[in-house]
């Protein structure tokens, strides 16, 4: 971790007035960022060792760096967690909730090598689990991503994911500091994740920022492509747009590239420090998650993706330490040096005829339409049903054409349109709960309406 703070000191000395962070009209130079981090680190050093960080904007970036420098255990508190999830997170970790920057006096030795963090994932069901990652795992991931993306001081990173997410902590804070690149926080882009916000406003913010690199969730990519279809200009400065978090329809990725959004898929999970494989700039292949990062090893064991190497977690909080390879629960294959992800092992639908269907790839075709907030492929009476929760009218003809490109056995026999307000249907993370969708599809009443499938 000392590499991060050595870089911060160097930028503050050599380029003191250059912009490090920007949010709307507020900016922090490298010198200002270094001073704020130093003051906050002194405050963290004088307080509890374990801190639950729930700050916004530029202060969130300062807090992450300062708590790290002070050697704290960092527990990011996602804004989308429910009160019950937050209470569980704080109780299980013993973290003290921090909602504003602490201030202290005096120099703080760099204790970042002792800092670790606990990433709570909402997962596919129920209670969040805490993934423990030490400084070694974090820096191994940072180093591997730096090698893959080659960030430099002329880069501008557009931050549109919540900073409570490990991926954004690495890509939006640590990598830019290491490279001396500017980070631009874009709340207009983050709002799109939750079915809120203004797509045109995000497109304007992106044009004003002229970023070179960003990381998007599939929904954000779908909305940006929709804005491009409507005539919104795309920044010509872009050199790499990573897309992850869920499968993305291949046609959407290809269309994005035609509009000048250089979309590249990737694959990862918190248990392996967020990124396992990534398509490098100019090396995208539709359907593939890209090449495995240097230093990380992936094996396919009975169809399951197994990860080993320096980025694998220390373990789950309160459980036995993790040693050796990590079985991810994801299905995949490796071809010509590239990793292909085929869905979750525990989500696999097995039909009576023996056919196996991974619902994620069917759902991705639905989610290519930004009007659809969430989608779930379920099996009712041995028939595939695609349950949709739209936030606005969607193009059923276009959806039918996309579904028609799937293998015959994976095409849903019918489509059920559900009320997105159905209790429990859309999780706090924005994904659909398939169990709730199945109950709604199998029952009767006003919770759904039927639409013919292609």
Structural overview:
This protein is an alpha/beta fold and 454 residues long. The chain folds into two domains: 2-342, Rossmann fold, CATH 3.40.50.12780; 348-452, GMP Synthetase, Chain A, domain 3 (2-Layer Sandwich). Helix content is 32%, strand content 26%. The strands form four sheets. Strands 2-1-9-8-10-11-12-13-14-19-18-16-15 form a 13-stranded mixed β-sheet. Strands 5-3-4-6-7-17 form a six-stranded mixed β-sheet, with helices on both faces. The radius of gyration is 22 Å and the shape is globular.
Short précis:
By secondary structure, the chain is an alpha/beta fold.
Characteristic terms for this protein:
13 helices; 32% helix; 2 domains; GMP Synthetase, Chain A, domain 3; 454 residues; alpha/beta; Rossmann fold; 13-stranded mixed sheet
**Percent helix range:** 25-40%
What is the makeup of the main sheet? 13 strands, mixed
Strand order of the largest sheet: 2-1-9-8-10-11-12-13-14-19-18-16-15
> How many structural domains can be distinguished in the coordinates?
2
CATH class designation of the largest domain: Alpha Beta
Give the C-alpha Rg: 22 Å
Instruction: Identify the quaternary structure here.
Output: single chain
Q: What proportion strand?
A: 25-35%
> How many strand elements?
25
pLDDT < 50 stretches: none
Task: Fill in the CATH topology of the largest domain.
Answer: Rossmann fold
- Mean pLDDT level: 92
Topology:
Blueprint: H1 2-14, E1 19-23, E2 26-29, H2 30-45, E3 50-53, H3 57-69, E4 73-76, H4 83-93, E5 96-98, E6 116-121, E7 129-134, H5 135-149, E8 156-159, H6 166-179, E9 182-185, H7 187-190, H8 199-209, E10 213-216, H9 218-229, E11 240-243, H10 250-258, E12 263-267, E13 277-278, E14 290-292, E15 297-301, E16 304-308, E17 315-316, E18 326-335, E19 338-344, E20 349-350, E21 356-357, H11 359-367, E22 372-380, E23 383-390, H12 396-403, E24 414-418, H13 434-442, E25 448-452
Parallel strand pairs: 1-9, 3-4, 3-5, 4-6, 8-9, 8-10, 10-11, 11-12, 23-24
Antiparallel strand pairs: 1-2, 6-7, 7-17, 12-13, 13-14, 14-19, 15-16, 16-18, 18-19, 20-21, 22-23, 24-25
Helix pairs in contact: 1-2, 1-6, 2-3, 5-6, 8-9, 9-10
């Amino acid at each position: 971790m000392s590499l991060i703070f050595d870089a911060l000191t160097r930028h503050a000395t050599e380029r003191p007035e250059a912009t490090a962070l920007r949010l709307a009209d507020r900016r922090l130079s490298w010198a200002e960022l270094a001073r704020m981090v130093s003051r906050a680190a002194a405050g963290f050093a004088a307080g509890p060792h374990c801190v639950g960080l729930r700050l916004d904007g530029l202060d969130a970036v300062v807090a992450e760096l300062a708590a790290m420098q002070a050697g704290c255990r960092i527990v990011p508190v996602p804004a989308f967690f429910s009160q019950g999830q937050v209470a569980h997170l704080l109780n299980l970790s013993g973290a003290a909730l921090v909602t504003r920057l602490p201030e202290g006096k005096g120099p703080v030795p760099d204790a970042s090598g002792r800092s670790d963090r606990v990433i709570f994932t909402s997962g596919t069901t129920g209670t969040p689990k805490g993934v423990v990652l030490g400084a070694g795992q974090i820096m191994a991931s940072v180093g591997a991503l730096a090698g893959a993306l080659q960030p430099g001081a002329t880069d501008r990173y557009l931050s549109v994911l919540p900073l409570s997410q490990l991926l954004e902590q690495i890509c939006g804070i640590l990598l830019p500091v290491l490279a001396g690149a500017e980070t631009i926080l874009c709340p207009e882009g983050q709002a799109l994740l939750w079915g809120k916000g203004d797509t045109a406003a995000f497109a304007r913010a992106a044009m004003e920022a002229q970023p070179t690199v960003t990381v998007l969730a599939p929904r954000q990519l779908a909305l940006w492509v929709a804005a491009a279809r409507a005539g919104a200009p795309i920044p010509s400065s872009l050199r790499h747009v990573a897309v992850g978090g869920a499968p993305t329809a291949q046609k959407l990725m290809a269309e994005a590239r035609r509009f000048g959004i250089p979309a590249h898929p990737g694959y990862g999970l918190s248990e392996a420090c967020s990124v396992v494989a990534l398509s490098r700039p100019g090396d995208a292949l539709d359907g593939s998650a890209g090449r495995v990062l240097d230093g990380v090893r992936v094996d396919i064991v009975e169809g399951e993706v197994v990860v080993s190497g320096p980025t694998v977690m220390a373990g789950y909080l309160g459980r036995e330490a993790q040693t050796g390879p990590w079985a991810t629960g994801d299905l995949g294959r490796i071809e010509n040096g590239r990793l292909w992800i085929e869905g979750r092992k525990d989500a696999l639908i097995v039909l009576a005829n023996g056919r196996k269907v991974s619902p994620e790839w069917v759902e991705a075709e639905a989610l290519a339409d930004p009007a659809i907030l969430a989608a779930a492929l379920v099996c009712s009476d041995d028939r595939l049903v695609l349950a949709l929760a739209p936030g606005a009218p969607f193009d059923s003809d276009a959806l039918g054409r996309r579904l028609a490109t799937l293998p015959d056995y994976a095409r849903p026999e019918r489509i059920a349109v559900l009320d997105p307000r159905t209790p429990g249907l859309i999780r706090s993370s924005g994904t659909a709960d398939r169990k709730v969708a199945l109950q709604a599809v199998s029952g009767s009443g006003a919770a759904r309406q039927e639409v013919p499938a292609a």
